[in-house]
Amino acid sequence: MNTPSSSALSQLAAIVHEYQQQANVPQLLETLASFAEQTSTDEIFSAADAHAGIPEVLGPLMEVVVDREPGHARALVRLANAYWLTGRGPDVVGELASRALAVDPSHRGAWHLWALTDTEPRGRMQRWLQVTERFPDDELAKANLADNAASVGTAEDDPVAVKLALDTFADLRRTATHPQQKAALDQAITTLGNRR
To answer: What pLDDT, on the 0 to 100 scale, is given for residue 76?
Structure first.
């Protein structure tokens, strides 16, 4: 027996399959609008999980959820991510990430999107620093901090940014478990250290 959720999931799967076969975006958008109109917000959100890697599917569905529930932090983050992946730009994505943070200041994905959207390298570095201070075990944030600090340090000949990058790369190296990851971090540390 089909529950409403499994029905919504199978309906959305059929829509996505058709899109993958035909690659017809206008038809996809029309079909998604019809699906969303007859589907509850919770069911849309749950069904969209299975297709979170397809921004042209996720975006329109999360637009519906955000329209219905403007304070739905997870939907705001997913919409911001879909927009980022489809090139909507830092202003739109940053505004959605900021809205999500206002609703749920503990949402790590919102912090990541907020940090990504600063258009100035130094500003991005500062934002990633804030994310790593808030989430000390977040290795992705640390990697972004190190990369941005290295970029600022070398482009602006800033020894403080270079030190921040080296310290962060070294911290990542201490916890690295995969040989390729260790080698890449060793290379980054050596390359950046040679610039000092």
So the answer is: 97
